[in-house]
Fold this sequence. Notes:
- Chain A is an all-alpha fold.
- Chain A has eight helices and no strands.
- Chain B is globular, with a radius of gyration of 17 Å.
- The chains are: A mainly alpha, B alpha/beta.
Amino acid sequence: MRQALAVARKDLLIEWRSRLLLVRVAPFALLVLVLFAVALDSEPLILRAAAGLVWLAMLFASLLVVQRSYAVETDDAAIDVLLTGAGEPGRVFLGKLLAAFVQLLVLAALLVVGAVVLYGAAVSGSRVVLLVTTMVTASLGLSGIGTLYGAAVANMTGKDSLLPLLAMPAAAPLLIAASRATEAAFGSQTIDTTAGWTWVALLAVFAVVFVSAGAAAFGTLVEADS
Amino acid sequence: MQAVTTNGTAVQLDGVVVVLGGYPALAGASVAVRAGELVALRGANGSGKSTLLRACAGLVPVARGTVRVLGVHDDRTALRRHVGLLGHKNGLYADLTARENVQFTARLVGAGATDVDDALRRLGIDARVAATRAGSLSAGQRRRTALASLVVRRARVWLLDEPHAGLDAASRDELDSILAAATRAGATVIFTTHEIETRGAAVPRTVTLAGGVVVSDEPAAASTGGAR
C-alpha cells in the first residue's frame, strides 16, 4: 500500500503544480455544460437533461485527466522507474486510480454546482446523501475505466484518439446509471429516490469490477506496451 | 516466487530472444555476470545493448531462452524488485523538483530522508538545483538527478544505459566512483557504453554485442581503462 500512496501523492503533486484540472479540465467541462444549455435552449428540457449532461461532461473531462496521468509517465520513460521501484504493478494502478478519483470527485462537485447554477437543478434533504454517494461511486468507476484503458493505450501511436474510442463504450453503462441516480437526486418526476439508490448499487458494482480488473490487468497491459 | 540463490552468479542469460515490433532485438544472447561484478556492454546502435538491459529488468517479454536475476527467472514482477534501471531517458517528472523526484523513488522503495540527502550529495546536486523542477534543469543536471534516484533505490543489480552521457568530466569520475563503491558493497553493475577510454577507473570486463548476440567477452585484463 505504501507504493500506491506514493504514486497517488506524486500524481496529485504534479497536478497541483501544473494546475491542469483547474486551468484546463474544469473550464472545459463547465463550457460543455454551458454549450449544452445554449444548444437545447429550453428550460424544461435542460432541467430534465441536467443529470445526463453533468455526467457526459464528466466523461469527456475524465479522458483529459487520464491522458495527463499517463503522459507524465511516458514523456521521460518514468514508467520504467515506476515498475521497477514499485514491484507489483497492481500497486501502481491503485495509486494512479486514487489520484484520478480525487481529481474527478472535485470535478464532479464543480459540475453539480454548475448544474445548480446554470440549469436550476435543486437538491435538498435526503437527496443530498444520494447525490454525494452517486458522485463518489461514479467517480470511482470512471477513474477505474480511465486508468485501465489509459494503461492499455499509454505507449501506442494515436493514444489520444484511441482512449476515447475504447473507454467511452465501456463507460456507457456507468453514464446511464450515474445519470439516473443523479436525476433522482435532482428530484426528477420520472424517477424516485428509491430507484436512485438502485442505480447507485449498480454504480458500485461497476466500480468494483473495473477497479479489480484494472489492478489485475495493469501489469500485463503496461508490459505489453514496453 | 523462487528463493533468491545468488550462487555466485547474479545475472544469467541463456539463448535469450526478444522480438520487438517483429524484429529480433536479441537473437540468442547468452552471458553470465557474477555478483559484485562491473560489466560494460559495448556494441553499435541496434546491437541489442538496451534490450538486454530491459530484459534483465523484466521490462520486455522474452520469446525464447531464460533470463535469471538473483535466482529469479519466471516471474518478471519478482525480478524487478532486485534491479534499478537507468535507461536512455532519465525517468524524471518535469513538474517535480530534483529532490522530489528522488524522494518519490525513496518512498517507493522505503528509503528515508537521510538516504535522499546522501544520494543528492553524492551526485553533487546542491540545494539550488535540488529545489529546481526537473523540466528546468540542464541535461547534465537531469542525468545526475536520475542517478541520485538510482542510488537511493539501493538495488542489488544496477542496469545503466549510457550513464555517462551528458555528464561533465567531474561528474563522470564521480559516477565511476559510485559504480565502484556499489560493486564493493556487493551490487552487480551492468552498463552500456559506446567507447572505452584509456584513462579513468578500470573496467573489469567488457561484453560486446552485435546483431542481438554476444560476439566477444573480454575479461578484466583485456580492458584498458574507464568506460565512457
